[in-house]
Amino acid sequence: MKAMILAGGLGTRLSEETSVMPKPLVEIGSEPILWHIMKIIRGHGIREFIVCCGYKGLLIKRYFAEYGLRALNVTYDLAESSVEYRDRHGEDWRVTLLDTGLDTMTGGRLRRAADLLDDEPFLMTYGDGVGNIDISALVDFHRSHGKLATVTAVQPTGRFGAMYLAEQDPHVRAFKEKPDGDGTWISGGFFVLDPRALDLVTGDDCVWEHGPMGALTEAGELVAYRHQGFWHPMDTLRDKHVLNELWNSGKAPWQTW
């Protein structure tokens, strides 16, 4: 199975970081969130990745071009103009970095990468969210129902403390700091898609989360895999701080490798 990661958006809500780099390269610890996402996926046996680049995509290409320089020992023979890597303890990933356009929407990015897919289902996610999602179980669930698309449904934690009030009574009855979600399920990314689902994409301006997902829902072809564990996006600077605090504590829930 191949994994496709959408990594081309502007990331405007994290402008403190994304003014100089694409959001997938914003770091958690010493590595970008894109690396963390790929480590999560590789832990479930998937090693072939298609990264759909757009905004500042050259920096993503440069990250992978220089990966060996950071991870491996190297010998430069200047007389022979040759390079020899001294070991092979790096990742075993195969990564295709595809320029899908600066202004292309999410659906359009998927469609532009369709030629790189096989006839088999593929994993798709975004380059800005991590979780301890059991991707193996997600894939098994997708294969079991036979529909075109599976989306991972998550319940995000609350961002603010909640006060509980009785009607017509000014006294606070209870207060809970940052409670769990209110029971609402949202998309956490991590889709498994049949390539035929991409036939619903009409062009570069097609937003995957609007037209195609709506059409799949109406046709009864979109099924939700409920993930009740940890999931957290990196949408804002606050999210970056939360994820870094978890990582630096040595107890990051998504570190399943």
UniProtKB/TrEMBL annotation:
This is Glucose-1-phosphate cytidylyltransferase. It comes from the Bacteria. The gene is rfbF. GO terms for molecular function: glucose-1-phosphate cytidylyltransferase activity. The keyword Cell cycle does not apply. Residues 2-201 form the Nucleotidyl transferase domain. Its EC number is 2.7.7.33. Keywords: Nucleotidyltransferase, Transferase.
